[in-house]
Amino acid sequence: MLLLILLYLVLSGVVKVCPCPASCVCMNGSPGAADLRMVQCGDPGMSTIPVSVPANTFKLCLEKTRISRVPRAAFFNLSELRFLWLTYNSITSVHPSSFVNLKALRELRLDGNLLTAFPWEGLRDMPRLQTLVLHNNRLSSLPPQAALFLPNITYLDLSSNRLTILPAELLDLWFPLPGLQEGPVQRKILGLHDNPWLCDCEISLLISLSASLGSSVVLMDPLLMCSRSVDQSGMLLRQVELSRCMRPSVQPAATSVTSSLGSNVLLRCDASGYPTPTLTWIKTSAYTDCCQQDGLQKSKQLPKMLDSFMQESPRVGVRWSIISLNGLSYSDAGEYRCQARNMAGLSEAPIKLKVMGATRLLRPPRKNSKPTLPRVLQRSRKPSKTPAAAAIESRISKGLQTQPEGS
Fold this sequence. Notes:
Layout: H1 2-12, E1 24-28, E2 37-41, E3 57-62, E4 69-70, E5 83-85, E6 93-94, E7 107-109, E8 131-133, E9 155-157, H2 168-174, E10 188-191, E11 197-199, H3 201-211, E12 217-219, E13 226-229, H4 239-242, E14 246-252, E15 256-260, E16 265-274, E17 278-292, E18 295-299, E19 304-306, E20 310-315, E21 318-325, E22 334-342, E23 345-356, H5 375-380, H6 387-402
Parallel strand pairs: 2-3, 3-5, 4-6, 5-7, 7-8, 8-9, 9-10, 10-12, 11-13, 15-23
Antiparallel strand pairs: 1-2, 14-16, 16-21, 17-18, 17-19, 17-22, 20-21, 22-23
């Protein structure tokens, strides 16, 4: 009878086998997830992350404590964790491997701490993370490689920090060029306000694109305050000039060019944008110099930056460039890319060059004036004799017959 009562208590959830850490409060999950727990720790004297958090915790809140660092694999046993709040503590450092095994985590909040840097590469350990809050810290820079780890983040709050520059790589992530977007467009919410931004084309472009109709990016506060504004050369830009910032567009004179072996050819492209973009040429592929019946055989080659070309800017916002190829050889054939870059971004256009060699003509067969007989007939047929030759042969035969013996 006692065993039956104990079994009933276990099945009804009255008896819990998972202990709660000291100075923390543990609560059952929602009715749909009764086997999961929510753990909240808010002891002002707590200086380290507790290690006895139940493994079935789905939400962990560590708030207003003296915790100053998040060590390696601090939450390794919490594979069911979906919400991690480390808010308003004294955290100054987070190890890049702090979030190992948090494959189910959806939300990470670190607002109200003393972080001067964040280990962006640590986001690889949280493939399902969608919300990242770093509000009210001391972040002073956003590295370009951060864009590699943010594709799945739909809510990013970087407000109230010390950020000054927005990398162009983040603009490419949030506002991809047409044709580069893979899959459906995800709506993203960004908090970038209350930072001493250096107003350049990235910031201007971000504001204008997010305010456009149908934009996939929404700013929590579209009013971004700027400490100062400069252009690419370091000179100050007026607000009216910032509004003109435009990512480059490239238009080649021809997308495909065919020329003969040994000839000269010019490849040209025109670019527009503000500030006025600079142009570079890159050769991305080549052809082998062997000629096949079905054309030139293609081979791979690493991209090569070309130094010999000419460019000129006839007016602000426009630039053209020409590359001259003289005495074409098969090695000149391939794909050339005209690349335009300014503070607002980068774009490029390909031009394919094909080199055609001289065609070899087959030698026509020789014409014989006399018809020739087959070899079989030639062997069986005896040569004909003229009358004079027959008479001489007859006389010689008669003389041999009448010659006396012993002479």
